[in-house]
Amino acid sequence: MLFQATVLVDLTAMAICLWMAFYLFARGFPSKVTIRGVILLLSLSAFFFGAYNNIFNQVSGTAVWRAVFLIIGIGAWYEITLQLLSAQNRKNLLPWTVGIYTIGLVTIVLLLSTRNAFVGEQGNSIYVAHMGIGIPYILYGIFEIAACFGIFQNLLAHGKIGMTSQGKFFLFASIFPVAGVTYGIVALAMPSPMPRLVQDLMIFSGVFLMGISVARHQTLVERRTTLQDFPITSLTILFLAAVYALMAFRLGLPLQLVGPLVAFVVLTHALYDLVREFLERLRIRNEGTLRKQLRKLESERSSEESLRLRLQEGLSLLCNTLDSYSGFIAIKRGEDFVVAASRQSVQLERSFSSSDVAYEDITHAPSEQFPGIQYFAPSFDGQIQIALVGIGKPKSRLDYSHGDLDLLSEVADQIGTIVSLSNVQLPIAQSEINEKEANMVTGEMIDAMGSNSDPEFVKIVEEGLRHLSDYITLGQSLLADKLDVKAGSHIERGRELQKVIVDSIELLRPADKRPPEPLPRVWYNHAVLHDAYVEGVPNREIMARLYISEGTFNRTRRNAIRGLARLLMEKRAG
C-alpha cells in the first residue's frame, strides 16, 4: 500500500509541477515573481521525476541530484517571497540573502563532489535516503533552516506581506515545505527509515499551492493570466496525461516507464501551449506597431482626399489585424455607395445601389456579388446607413472568431463617425474642430485594433454599469477587485468604484459642452453610457434622442462598453 501511494504521489506531483511551470512561463513572462515560480516548479518536477525512477531502479548518487534540485527549489521559494517586498526591504536583506545563496551553492558543490554523501541507497525505494553525518549534512541542514526562516521573515516581518489579502496565499503555501523540510532533516539522521511519502506529499502540497498563488498574483496584480483559464487548461492536460498512462498500463508498458511517458505527454502539450502563446504575443506586438503607423495620419483640413487617406489606412490596419487578404470601405454619396478604400478587392470608385448593401448589423456577404468578401459591417449616422465595411476571408482560418467580429463592428462604428464628421459642411473654425474630432476618433479606432480586450473583463464592466447606483453591490463586485479599489468598508469601496467609472465615462466626452439634439455621431459612445447608466434614462428615450434604431443602439452600447473596459484596463495598468 505504501509502495502504490508513493508511486501515485510522485507521478502526480511530477506531472502537475511540469505543466504549471510551462503554463506560468507562457502567461507570466517576464514577471520576476513568475520566473522564480517557474524555476521552483521545474526543479521540483525534476525532484519528483528522480524520486519516481528511484522507486524502480536504485542507483547510487541519484539521491544527491534530488537534494540539489530541492536546494534550487527552496532557494527559488525564498526568492519569490523576497520579490513581494519593497526595493528598500530587499536592499536591507541583501546580506542575509547573499548568505543563504552562498551556503546553498557551497552545499551543492560539496554534495556533488563528495562520494557516498548518501548511504544505503541500494534497495531503499520508498524511504527517505540517509545522509552520512559530516560537513555536507551540516551545511544542508543550515541552508534549509536559514531559507525557511528567511521565507517567513519576508512574509511576516517586513510590512507583514503575509497578512495581506494577496500575501496570505503565499504564507499558507509556505507552511507545507517547511514541514516537509523539517521532516526530511529529521529523517536523514534517524537510524530507522522513515516513509518518503510524507515528505513528498508535504513538498508537493506546498509547491502546488505556491503555483496557485503565483497564478493568482498574475491575475490580480499584473493581469497576465486568468484564474478561469488556469484550472481548465490544467485539468485538461492532466486528464490527457492520465488517459495516456492508463492506456500504456493496460497495453503492458512497465510501470517504471509510465513516468517518462507522462512527462513526455505533459512536455509536448506544454511546448505547444508555449509556442501558441508566443505567436499570440507576436500578433499583439504587430498590432501595436500598426497602431503607431496609423497615428501618423495627419491632415491640414477636412477634405475628400484626407477622408480617403484615413479610410485606406484604417482598412489596411483592419486587414492586417484580422489577418485578412482583402477588404473595402464604401461611403454613401447621394443615393449610392461608392468604394473609397480597397485592398485586393472591388475597384475604387465602384458604386452600389443602396438597396444592395443595406444591412442592420454584421452579416455574411453575398458571394455572387462580392467574391472574396466574407462579412459586411454597416456604419450609421442616426438611422441612416452612411458607410459599409467589407472584409475578406481570413488567411489561416476558416472563419473569424466572435472577438474578431466584435472588433470589426467597433471599427465600422468608428468609421461611421469619421464619415459623418467629413460630411458636415461648416465654417472654417468649426471645420477645424471637426478635423480634431475626426483625428480623435481615428485614435479610438487605432486603440480598438491595437488592444486585446478580455471578454470576461468586458462582462464584469457591464455588470458594474448595471449596478452603478448600488454602492453595496459595487463594493462587493469583481470589478472592484480587478481595479484594486481600496476603502474602509465595502460601501465606501462601492462609492470609490462608482467615481472611477463615472470619471472614465466623462473621459469619453468629445468636448466640454454637449451640443443640442440630435447629437452628432461622435457623441454616441458618451451619450449612451452617460444617459443609460449615470442618469438612468430608458433605452427608448436614448434612441429617440439620437434618432437611431434599436439595432444601432445595441451595437453602439456594446462598442461603448468595450471602449470603457479598454480605458479602465489602461488606467489600472498605469
Number of domains: 3
Q: What is the CA–CA distance across the termini?
A: 55 Å
Q: Treating each run of at least 4 consecutive H or I residues as one helix, how many helices?
A: 20
Our Rg estimate from Cα atoms comes to 31 Å
Explain how this protein is built:
This protein is of the alpha+beta class and 574 residues long. The chain folds into three domains: 2-228, Rhopdopsin 7-helix transmembrane proteins (Up-down Bundle); 297-437, GAF domain (Beta-Lactamase, 2-Layer Sandwich), CATH 3.30.450; 455-573, no CATH class. The protein is built from 20 helices and eight strands. The chain has a six-stranded antiparallel beta sheet. It has a two-stranded antiparallel sheet with strand order 1-2. Strand 4 and strand 5 form a beta hairpin. Helix 2 runs antiparallel to helix 8 and helix 2 packs antiparallel against helix 10 (255-294).
What are the defining features of this structure?
single chain, 574 residues, alpha+beta, Rhopdopsin 7-helix transmembrane proteins, Beta-Lactamase, 3 domains, 6-stranded antiparallel sheet
